[in-house]
Known about the structure:
The chain has 14 helices and 14 strands. It is an alpha/beta fold and 367 residues long. Strand 12 (267-270), helix 10 (279-286) and strand 13 form a beta-alpha-beta unit.
Amino acid sequence: MKVAILGTRGIPSGYSGYETFAEEIGSRLVKRGHDVTIYAHGHMFPERAASYRGIRQIYLPSLKGKNTSQFSHSLLASFKASFSDSDVVLFCNCANGPFGLILRAFGKKCAINVDGLEWMRPKWNGLAKRYFKFGARCSTIFFNRVVTDAQGMQDYYLQNFNCRSTDIAYGADIMYADNPESVRQVGLEPFNYYLIASRLVPDNNADLIVKAFLDSSSQRKLAIAGGTVYKNSFEEALRRMADERVVFLGHIDDFQLVKELHCNAYAYIHGHQFGGTNPALLKGLAYGNCILALDTVFNREVLMDGKYGLLFSKNVKELTGLIDEIDADSERAETFRNKARDRIEERYTWDIITDEYERLFLELVRS
């Protein structure tokens, strides 16, 4: 098959889960004999390689601006893909729902991975929230197939949009520590810190986690790996709230360091509230973390109702108690670390995810 992937910034991945997703399934499809093309943002790649890991890249321009860059790029990519020889087109992000109309008008078989419930996230204003929900509804109308990445998300689309979607999760690669010394270089001791790894935005609940940790009796540190590409009041408030036990590492591009931070953490605390199968949570499992996760339908699904991690409600006191509990029980923490990767092997390896997308694409081509 000839597969086109639209709606990402391009590869190699360096910004978000969608880029990682496109790179991981794209490279595996290439190894299976398929032809894969990704439409990338030209301004983000000064050196424009014709291909990466066997995936062809087409670089297109876009308007500058946080709110116009992706929209303008997706619009242009939709027309380019419509006149290409691709057999099937995969779009990412429900915001691109309206562009399915262009693809279908030119006879393209197309699917869309709608991602999370963006219109519920507090970082967006009212107009953006309305657009995301409009995009989600368009996705269910214009695309041949809608892909949701969790059972809970599949249920939501059925109940709210009367859409029977295809459930295909996100993936992760299993990794192990091979250089614990690297965490010492950023002021941490292996297994003597808790880890947050996320963008510092309100719906990831880093403020709740910091408050709970500061109220706990733990003598370990709390390391925060992540940030935003722009300054924001939420991150500034976190820094004012913190004391010397909280270490802000900022955004980390070094994959090896991110891996070591996970693999050498005493526990990983996951506060993501909206979205389906979250890449950061899967990474925590794949890297062998003891997981403490916010109790949402999506996190509960990944952790199998607490079998593969501990769940807490959106309550500072409850999380404080959970931190104190696991902090004093190193054997229990080790038990969770030892079985974390089993969950990835069961359901979330990239090979499993690629199998499911390959079946979906073949069904579209043959239909």
